[in-house]
């Protein structure tokens, strides 16, 4: 419904799997720190409730019973910007909450996350089917004082480079090029351009767009 490479991450990170207690007991999460510090002072160590910036590459683990082993389904690296998440309090999948708390800023780790601590029996889309074991190669970039502004995000303003409250084809093309997507995905037009005029207005846009139309005062 929204540009998959940008917004899919929101749905991925916010989705928490139901998982049963019995299944969790059987499932083992592995965390292998392969680079950076493994011990550090408390203020450099991720604690539950911390807001952190994180790089990740998510793929289907080699051991996964479902999905295509090795297939990357999402990555912050292609956007070159880390994502900001609140960790350890149920805002992200359990495998992140449990695997990332205790890691040090600057560390890189491989997390192998069984389905019960990932996206469970439902999965999340065709690349992450139900029952998939996930592999996240992550880097803890920083612990932040508070969630930065862009957690809320205003994707609309980012794309609307001339700030006129409308996204036209050139602005959308430029935006998608900037995130390494060669063409504006058809679904963007199908779902967002409600009246089919090849202009996506602030009112039409369903992604993160702030609380008021940038041109609101003049309308
Ligand atoms: C889209 O908007 C930009 C910025 O205002 C403008 O330069 C460009 O010509 C417009 N493109 C189209 C296809 O209307």
TrEMBL record:
Residues 49-144 form the PPIase FKBP-type domain. The keyword Repeat applies. Keywords: Calcium, Endoplasmic reticulum, Glycoprotein, Isomerase, Repeat, Rotamase, Signal. Residues 147-182 form the EF-hand domain. Its EC number is 5.2.1.8. It catalyses: [protein]-peptidylproline (omega=180) = [protein]-peptidylproline (omega=0). PROSITE patterns: EF_HAND_1, EF_HAND_2, FKBP_PPIASE. GO terms for cellular component: endoplasmic reticulum. It comes from Cyclotella atomus. Residues 1-22 form the signal peptide. This is peptidylprolyl isomerase. One of its GO terms (molecular function) is peptidyl-prolyl cis-trans isomerase activity. The keyword Signal applies.
